[in-house]
Amino acid sequence: MRNAVDREIPERIGSREVRPFEGAFATSPKGTQKAARTMKHAPRDEDKVLPSIDAAIEACGLSDGATLSFHHSFRDGDRVINLVLEACAKRGLKGLRLFPTALFPAHKAVIDHIESGVVSRIEGSMNGPVGAFVSQGGKLAEPAVLRSHGGRWRAIEAGDVHIDVAFIAAPQADPYGNATGIRGKTPCGPIGFSAADALYADKTVVVTNDLVPYPVYPMEITQSCVDHLVVVDEIGDPENIASGTLQLTKSPTRLRIARLTAEAVMASERFVDGFSFQGGAGGISLAVTKYLGDAMEEAGIVGSFGMGGGTKLLVDLLHRGLIRTILDGQAFDLDAIASIREDAGHVMIDPGFYANYDSRGCATYQLDAAFLGATEVDLNFNVNVNTHSDGLLLHGIGGHQDVAAGAGMTLITVPTLRGRIPVIVDSVTTVTTPGETVDVIVTERGLAVNPRRDDLKARLVNAGLPVRPLEEIKAEAERLVQPIGKPVFGDEIIAAIEWRDGTVIDVVRKVEGWE
Amino acid sequence: MRNAVDREIPERIGSREVRPFEGAFATSPKGTQKAARTMKHAPRDEDKVLPSIDAAIEACGLSDGATLSFHHSFRDGDRVINLVLEACAKRGLKGLRLFPTALFPAHKAVIDHIESGVVSRIEGSMNGPVGAFVSQGGKLAEPAVLRSHGGRWRAIEAGDVHIDVAFIAAPQADPYGNATGIRGKTPCGPIGFSAADALYADKTVVVTNDLVPYPVYPMEITQSCVDHLVVVDEIGDPENIASGTLQLTKSPTRLRIARLTAEAVMASERFVDGFSFQGGAGGISLAVTKYLGDAMEEAGIVGSFGMGGGTKLLVDLLHRGLIRTILDGQAFDLDAIASIREDAGHVMIDPGFYANYDSRGCATYQLDAAFLGATEVDLNFNVNVNTHSDGLLLHGIGGHQDVAAGAGMTLITVPTLRGRIPVIVDSVTTVTTPGETVDVIVTERGLAVNPRRDDLKARLVNAGLPVRPLEEIKAEAERLVQPIGKPVFGDEIIAAIEWRDGTVIDVVRKVEGWE
Fold first, then answer.
1. Could you read off the pLDDT of B6-35 as tens digits, one per residue?
2. CATH of segment(s) A46-123+161-240
3. CA distance B298 to chain A (A)
4. Lesser CB count within 10 Å: N end or C end of chain B?
5. Is the pTM of this model over 0.95?
6. B residues 273-302 near A, CB within 8 Å?
7. Do residues A218 and A180 make contact, with C-beta atoms less than 8 angstroms apart?
8. B406 and A219: CB-CB below 8 Å?
9. Is B213 an 8 Å CB contact of chain A?
10. Domain locations in chain A as residue ranges
């Protein structure tokens, strides 16, 4: 069947019955009730601390085929996923389903665990080597499933994914299970990504390298749901949280894109007192944030909130009084983490608050403007952030869908070329985010406004911005390079891309070669 | 049938099948799953603010027989319960079940609503006139149910009580439904008592007198579950939060009790670094807190946490560095509220964290010492805080059961006489808290130690404290007064007293007169 972004989607993917994507806000929740949480109980005197991850696996009764969940707040510095999988492998466990918020290059050992049969399914983002490996086809027992931050939370609450054991890396915890990511020896920032896991998993295990006396606060993860704790030497390397993303771009091309983006936001009717925005941690987004902050100061505008990933740049806006609050789901640098500890207005939020489709409201719906990157965009304004032009599944969705759908004005910031590869294409390799949620595509060669937004187009034109048809920008870029080879896809579906409501917006197929 | 505290309990109470009390930690949770929450959804653009409580009742589809919930953070200053019931009465609604955390004298209009049939059931504490009215018998369609703070949370999560509409008084809220009790025009302190209601109710309505721009923080109640908001002129009078409870006692008798209590705690093996305690807001408890703080300072002991209700006295200990944290579920004065806003170590907790039996741990289980009041105690160390010696149901349970069961050392602080009425009796009128959870009864005539705690008795004797048999203290007090008349009870059960695990520890019967 063809879904609402005209992608061919099978009626079943693996063991899953597919609901096709119908539109960004087209569906109602399935059913009238959320999943029921597992009943829990505690004796009055109980020692929850176990001597090893192996002991925790034993205590949880983890068995073949179980679903294990993890958060990614240590990003490419995480050690816990590897530790747990090593322990599972040693115990001879097979056929596990991994349900991480995201995998990074640090987790390339997952490939070995797939080859040895320890891991047979993955639902979660796969940044880098694991994604490339899975893209070869024939690796997993069922196609992978990728979800947005909000979509993952929704899936847990709706019962789409039942977690057997949640392993939660915690930079600080007390022996009763309260845990936080903003204190400890190696703070990583908010760990609320695991809050739904902790609530809904049959068993919840906190893994920490800093066990301190009761009570740890803030209680991002609470004693109420933690079954066991394990102390290890290292849970992650906070130096790797930033993963090199936190440099303001110095490229003149990208600075021009950032400048045009900021000017487009400033030209919109939303750039008034109470303005709110979200940028990512990429170089262009950081530059836009900086430009907008300066413009707010000049215009005397105080923003209601900036949304994170938290960065030093956002914290700077808070400290300068240019925004009243930061809503922060994950920290991209240590300045942001320090600010969460110190600034009452720097508020941690979890993905449910941020973007759960099946809730009475999402923080992303309150955004005036969002500026997001892309791997590819197409003439229907669809965006791909998952696959590269070589067809390989190399990135997760993150909050891309959630923010694009929510923001009053969504701007996709892309250079027209990356090396010799055009970024604007006829049809994106994979639809991550549908064009109906994208308002403007900003390139160094001008801005293209979605035809659904003639109101906005008029404002940008009036502001003297270089508004151009997307086709024209695309053609101009293509004239500068030779056509490149394209991937040849096989039939096998290696991953389903879920829209945030649980429908399937696209599938990723096995790469068989390149033409 | 007779339960584990030897009370006669019927097999059914109203429409409810009774599980009899088996012991403080004897039962396992019923079933393997908690109740499933109602699925919710939000359009992207939605105005949640409604013009009146009547409009909210309409929007929620509230109908005859529905269950309405409320919190008591404004205590005797609350206006919201009356406003909502007036609106229900005007709409001609009948047979409502009230599920407040507590009713106070301010809610005596509930009596009229019972007489007119608007309200026919109550599950929640009834402090004062409503309790006295219900005690006459024949007033409610089903016996009332009283639960502890933790027990109420458990009942919601376990599905024992399903809430149709939660009305949440919020001193500050934003138009998307985020709400807090610690900011606004009339802050009342934490409103986390309603957090389970907000999550599990079919519909959740925030009633505020201070609607401010998005985002309000801390988000004690979140946009994720709030369906509607209503702005009213007055939600409550913060002057009445304290309700006259916050005076340190000046009575020499009570000061002696407080002094003996503090000395007993200091003599226990638990009075070391990391010590934790909870006192209430009564005059004796406040004096004990003060004595203990001074003793900690002198001994160089730093406590891990003090548990609230938050008071200026606890805040003072935090500021003096004598305790590292305050875990605060409800504020008893404005100093406590200010401290929550300003002190990172003054942490708000909800009743689930505090004391939910069906969870992986309760904060009360981490308490070293607790000093609690009582209306009556008996020779089995059972405690009554619900009924007076006249048999009338005049008080709720609060956290009494939760704290007594949890604390390593539970001390009940009581004068032997109140006016001409002995406090130590053969058998308490109503068992609120079973003797097995009580370690010491402290009176001005000496301390009685529960025979289960010979270890503790030896320490107190060694410390030179006046340890005496409870029978002896009782007899000494009785010699000073004439025997008083006793209530004559009818057969009708007017209320069930739940233990925190959902079993029934006692029932309260209709008062027919006094002998």
1. 999 999 999 999 999 999 999 999 889 999
2. 3.40.1080.10
3. 22
4. C
5. yes
6. 274, 276
7. yes
8. no
9. yes
10. 46-123+161-240, 252-490
